[in-house]
Amino acid sequence: MIAWIIYFRDNADYNAQYIQYYMEEGKKLGITVRLILVEELEYGVRNNQWFVTYQNKEIEKPDFIINRTIYPLLSKQFEYMGIPVFNNSFVSEICNDKARTYQHLARTGISMIDTCFYKNTRIKELLNRRDGASSTVIKSVDGHGGQQVFLLSDCIRSGNNKKQEDMIQRLGHSDVVVQPLIGGRHQDLRVYVIGTEIIAAVLRTAKEGFKSNFSLGGDVRSYELSPDEIEIVQKIINEFEFGLVGIDFIIGDKGELIFNEIEDVVGSRMLYRCSDINIVELYLKHILKNIKSMLVTPWEYQSDSQHPHFVKLHDNENPKSLRYM
């Protein structure tokens, strides 16, 4: 069985050890995991058909793809070609946009932060506001690792034009969400999920400031979810068909969970720091289970539904000529 793990070149260099884990664990399970760099892919439509080439050559299609990029268009291309992608394009589209994530999950009734959505063109207007700025946070919709999260008061005080310019530059062309600053404990919780199963939870505490991201120096420790907290997580799981994700919550002043975001391309460094869980092995076994179910029963990719996924064909239908069938 052949699998691709897809990265941008810079991220592949940074995550070389993690990629090696996939190759080693894959070998134990009979999977040849091949690193594919986005920069060397070419894809689109040719002769009225979808196509993909790698390093300017035709390449054997994999049995499945682990997409470690934030690139839903690429995921969708592979799905149209009948190749299962983990996480799927729907997860990639929704979960890599904070505004779309809040919008999608609002129907579940889970606790989340009051949030306003703004186009990028309105950022300067936000900087000119003074009301409530001392407790207002502005975030890019597609930021990760706390790098594009700003306390508005730091940027609008007199004499802080440099901070304003820095914020505008770091936000780039991204749209933004604006939220009140909550969670005086400066803690958040990441829940690791594979498929429909909760794997582990890690509590993060900021060393200073209001951002608790591990990559920014936050302290981490393992955390046991209560039955009520599990129910909250399950409501989110029910809205998606996850591969591997991290669901993040802010810890409220009373210890309650307040939904924050979902990490599609979730990192595992702090999980390894807090536990001996082999998340790569568990993920590959989950994928194999899904692939084997497709081998037993003909499936086709359902692209016109709200949740893109592979669905069983009726007995009187012929399956598409997908390589894994």
Write a compact overview of the structure shown.
The protein is α+β, with helices and mostly antiparallel strands and 325 residues long. The protein contains eleven helices and 17 strands.
Amount of beta strand: 25-35%
| Number of structural domains | 3
Largest sheet: 5 strands, antiparallel
- SSE succession: EHHEEEEHEHHEHEEHHEEEEHEEHHEE
In CATH terms, what is the architecture of the largest domain? 3-Layer(aba) Sandwich
User: CATH topology of the largest domain, which one?
Assistant: Rossmann fold
Morphology call: globular
Cα(first) to Cα(last) distance is: 12 Å
Structural class: alpha+beta
Mean pLDDT: 87
**Percentage of residues assigned to helices:** 25-40%
Keywords: ATP-binding, Nucleotide-binding
Organism: Variimorphobacter saccharofermentans
Pfam families: RimK
GO molecular function, one term: ATP binding
What's the helix and strand layout?
Elements: E1 2-7, H1 9-14, H2 16-28, E2 32-37, E3 41-46, E4 49-54, E5 64-67, H3 72-80, E6 85-86, H4 89-95, H5 98-105, E7 116-118, H6 123-127, E8 136-140, E9 149-151, H7 152-156, H8 161-171, E10 176-180, E11 187-194, E12 197-205, E13 219-222, H9 227-237, E14 244-251, E15 257-263, H10 269-274, H11 279-296, E16 299-302, E17 309-312
Parallel strand pairs: 1-2, 1-5, 5-6
Antiparallel strand pairs: 3-4, 7-10, 8-9, 8-10, 11-12, 11-14, 12-13, 14-15, 16-17
Helix pairs in contact: 3-4
